[in-house]
Amino acid sequence: MNVKETIENREEITRRFFLGWGSATIIGMASLAASLLTMLRMPIPSLMPGKAARFKIGNKEDFPPGTTKYFEMEQVYVFADQKGISAMSAICTHLGCIVSKEQKQFVCPCHGSRYDLTGRVMQGPAPKNLSWYSVVMLPSAKLVVDRNKVVQPGTKLLV
Ligand code: FES
Questions:
Q1: Which atom of ligand 1 is nearest to the CA of 113?
Q2: pTM of this structure
């Protein structure tokens, strides 16, 4: 091996070394970016501290029969029919994502749990049914949902 061959070998090693590390760095950065994008696109569980246990939802006139309203801040659905007004949690009992109403069921976007219109689990992994909350009317005629008081599914404030 002469001097010229040795220098060429060194250049080849350096180029290989550089290309190897460069490729590894690019692949690593791409993997990191893909992971971060995946995390950002995941539905966000709704376990937020500090939500009021009791909150006003309006007057009974705001809920004509057949109404379904979603209170986003409180993550509660309120329903009204001919008999009265009721409230059900929108928080999935699996890991706390928000269920959305689709046709005749509630569906969790995170892991696919499905609940019927009474909040009963039809498909897991949700371990429990959705909770229903007491609805009361204040002397001022304002309606209040009280999440401290869990009631039987479908329990209504008679109006
Ligand atoms: S959080 Fe709803 S199914 Fe997992």
A1: 3
A2: 0.69
Whether 49 is in a domain gets the answer no
pLDDT by residue for the chain (159 residues), tens only, comes to 566 666 666 666 666 655 666 677 767 777 777 666 665 555 555 555 556 789 999 999 999 999 999 999 899 999 999 999 999 999 999 999 999 999 899 999 999 999 999 999 999 899 999 999 999 999 998 999 999 999 998 888 888
3-state secondary structure of 12: helix
Note whether residue 81 is domain-resident: yes
Overall number of domains in the chain: 2
Do residue 63 and residue 12 come from a single domain?
no
Candidate of 92, 106, 115, 128 to mutate for ligand 1, largest count of ligand atoms within 8 Å of Cβ: 92
The residue with tokens 């550089």 is 18
| CA–CA gap between residue 33 and residue 21 (Å, rounded) | 18
What range defines the domain where residue 66 resides? 54-158
For residue 1, which amino acid is it? M
Distance, CA 78 to ligand 1 centroid (Å)? 21
Binding pocket residue ranges, ligand 1, CB within 6 Å: 92, 94-97, 108, 110-113, 125-126
How far is the C-alpha of 75 from the C-alpha of 95, rounded, in Å? 14
